[in-house]
Design goal:
seven-stranded mixed β-sheet; 9 helices; 283 residues; alpha/beta; 36% helix; globular
């Protein structure tokens, strides 16, 4: 299949996200989404295998571990927490590890947004842990938690904030992830189908609440050679593709033309309408 997503360069990423506060919420795949974005904001490089596999470390590419991780003890339980943050002169990126889309911990994260700096962009996914580690009949619980989360998030964020719900990427036929504790290994084969069903519910609800939906399950259906041997995670090329999709989606939402250097519609050929200044601050 011909590749249609052009990689976004360091210059493009840095300029597009100039003076932006980006928050990434989710599991280990979302952690790698955060890491690839942090790396691209600083240099034209891909994540190493060690960087992809590491979790809870004190520092990654000039970021810092704020809470949890190795500060609190490493484990694969549903109570695991990890908050990371990267800050430069013109960028702020934060990651929260979550194992459930709505919980007391998620309420505390939303309170962070309510009391503190409001994110310009929120990139979210929570699914595989939700549907495998809590209730065997997960559908009603997952739907209810999605409703609670989307409603609360909309009440906390300013109207102009961009919220992107990532649909869960395709799982392998055989999977072995850190979240697969022995008591649920027998359900591993069913998870592939459960993810498809969960994607339908979450994508439909996210759209109903006015969130943007990025269908990574669809985008990576012919990209399976870049999934790792555990059947869950993905390599550095896949993560750069995710970053490019997210940034291209953001640019489109903000009315920004992506060729380098980035231009707003006001300066692009054809005299498109002026982009509101509160949506984009370019150098």
């Amino acid at each position: 299949m011909k590749e249609t997503t052009k990689p976004v360069s360091h210059q493009q990423a840095s300029q597009l996200l100039h003076n932006k506060f980006i928050v990434v919420l989710g599991d280990s795949i979302q952690r790698s989404v955060y890491k690839d974005l942090v790396l691209l904001l600083q240099k034209e490089k891909y994540l190493s295998l060690k960087q992809l596999k590491s979790k809870g470390e004190m520092s990654f590419e000039q970021d810092c571990l704020v809470e949890g991780g190795c500060l609190s003890g490493m484990h694969n339980g549903t109570q695991y927490q990890e908050v990371r943050q990267f800050q430069s002169a013109h960028h702020l990126v934060r990651f929260y590890f979550v194992t459930r889309i709505y919980s007391r911990y998620m309420e505390s994260i939303l309170e962070d947004f309510r009391q503190g700096l409001k994110p310009d962009v929120v990139i979210i996914n929570s699914c595989v842990w939700d549907i495998s580690r809590y209730l065997s009949s997960w559908i009603d619980d997952y739907k209810e938690n999605l409703h609670k989360f989307f409603k609360e998030l909309r009440g906390v964020l300013p109207e102009e904030a961009l919220v992107v719900w990532n649909l869960t990427m395709p799982l392998g036929e055989r999977i072995k992830g850190g979240f697969l504790v022995p008591e649920i290994e027998h359900r591993a084969s069913q998870l592939r189908q459960d993810v498809i069903e969960a994607n339908f519910y979450s994508g439909t609800l996210a759209d109903a609440y006015g969130m943007d939906v990025l269908d990574l399950h669809y985008q990576f259906r012919f990209f399976l050679q870049h999934r790792t041997k555990d059947g869950v995670h993905w390599n550095a090329l896949a993560h750069r593709r995710i970053t490019s999709l997210l940034l291209q989606h953001s640019a489109q939402a903000w009315g920004v033309v992506m060729p380098s250097p980035l231009t707003t519609p006001a300066t692009a050929p054809g005299g498109w309408r002026q982009t509101p200044q509160h949506l984009l601050k370019l150098k």
